[in-house]
Amino acid sequence: xxxxxxxxxxxxxxxxxxxxxxxxxxxxxxxxxxxxxxxxxxxxxxxxxxxxxxxxxxxxxxxxxxxxxxxxxxxxxxxxxxxxxxxxxxxxxxxxxxxxxxxxxxxxxxxxxxxxxxxxxxxxxxxxxxxxxxxxxxxxxxxxxxxxxxxxxxxxxxxxxxxxxxxxxxxxxxxxxxxxxxxxxxxxxxxxxxxxxxxxxxxxxxxxxxxxxxxxxxxxxxxxxxxxxxxxxxxxxxxxxxxxxxxxxxxxxxxxxxxxxxxxxxxxxxxxxxxxxxxxxxxxxxxxxxxxxxxxxxxxxxxxxxxxxxxxxxxxxxxxxxxxxxxxxxxxxxxxxxxxxxxxxxxxxxxxxxxxxxxxxxxxxxxxxxxxxxxxxxxxxx
Length: 382
What we know:
- Helices cover 66% and strands 8% of the residues.
- By secondary structure, the chain is α/β, with parallel strands linked by helices.
- The protein has a five-stranded mixed β-sheet with strand order 2-1-3-4-5, sandwiched between helices.
- α3 links the parallel β1 and β2.
- α7 packs antiparallel against α14.
- It is elongated.
């Protein structure tokens, strides 16, 4: 009998045993190899503080060549992408409230007349301040672009008229920031943090639900009972729905009373949609538990859900700055829609009418994910 402190044969035996265990669980082997590739690609493209292509709506009351040249300066800068032209201030406000436009450029009807008569016209740039990073970029870029237009206009006029630059007008821009005039970062991050924490907690709660049953071999006891898959899935979800809803209330209370981020909109609407998101997140966790065979696989699958949500949902980095393909992936994440909902209600005070697309998306995600979970569990019983 070898009683040495370290025996190379015993050491080799343990190594061999572990390799056999890894080979018997190919999923647990593939995930650590695939995850670095996925996360490097996501981080590489999604993590950026540079903001461009800010969705912009133009309300041009002048409709002259001068005003069109002014708008063109914004377009060629690459900081602004003019997606909408409207004929009324109300249309512009609706687009900014709904989040379809992050900036609104208002050109007065006397824009061209004032330029030609030596007066300085005043344009207006209205900015959605919910995301301070995007808002600061829009504000600084708008001022610079307006100054560049004035300089170009003066140079052209000097050549044509031969008069001094001091006698020529400048296009002055008045910047107004809505929803978050102070551009406070906490007003952007704290409501979103409520959604992120809520997702992570609820996914974690249910991701291990069926896995624990499998590891404890108690799943067989459930199989021999007349309980249907849909009854089992929903029955397992109910306790966690209650826990998730209570967690949401706690997080929301901290948001309001500790961090002093007030709710501008309808509190009841926020609670109802928050509970819907709880149900959706729990369904994601339940789906993970139907695929995972052990807690290690469940944990790795959770990471595959949580990290992309952190990066692609708009929680930290502006989605407008992401490449089109990466931006599209954000639409496949339920948290993206809930962040629009909670920021819209908390900061903008908008109602359900502006959030119909986000509400519909969350309902579809919940139904589809829950249905797949039931079918997956039913298949495992057959």
